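Input record (one chain):
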Amino acid sequence: MILVYEHASNRSLDNYLGSTDSSTNLTWVQRLKIGIDIARGLNYLHTRVEDEQRIIHRDIKSGNILLGKNWVAKIADFGLSRFHHTNQRESLYTENVAGTKEYLCPEYMKTGRLKRAIDIYSFGVVLFEILFGKLANDPVYVSEDENGIAYVARRHFEERTIHEMVDPKIMEEVDELTSTLHKGPNQDSLKVYLEIAYRCVAITQNDRPTAKDVLEELEKVLSSQVSRYFLWHEV
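The corresponding structure, as predicted from the sequence alone:
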């Protein structure tokens, strides 16, 4: 059996995080739309697969997010995924804890407990990567905590210093029509984005939101951002 994907003309998300090439910089709105696409894909896998089966991906990471035409993001690489029937109430367990270290759910690593929440944790890591513009295993994070970006981001969030970690490229976006600095994230959209990303990387699985919750919150962020942008232009 094989999986066939359409050509991802813009490669994978990890190619653009931490890149020093200004020509590959993703705008804040593009990043939000990529996050929404991932959330929509996860929501489908977790709730809407045929024959009443759900899929736990187990390896959500920026390298497995393919970017196609118009920067539409799609989840790829189902080599580690597991089916979970909707009528199967008990939790799944595995002795083979697999995935990429910096994206792995702490509870999953300790107990082998397989729930959809492990994908949400990994997605939270990706959300922080998208916002900070660096990969989860970037030396700047690993030097602070060997577990990578999620642990560092969680600590900075609780200490209210997380704004210092936001990618300066999106904070300095210029509107080409007016040459003014106002296309980056506004405070309302950034606040909601940070809160949902923080909830995704909660230590325990039961404290994390569902993919549907994340999707709804990210859509709010995009709506707030777009509304602010058009309001600015009208003024």
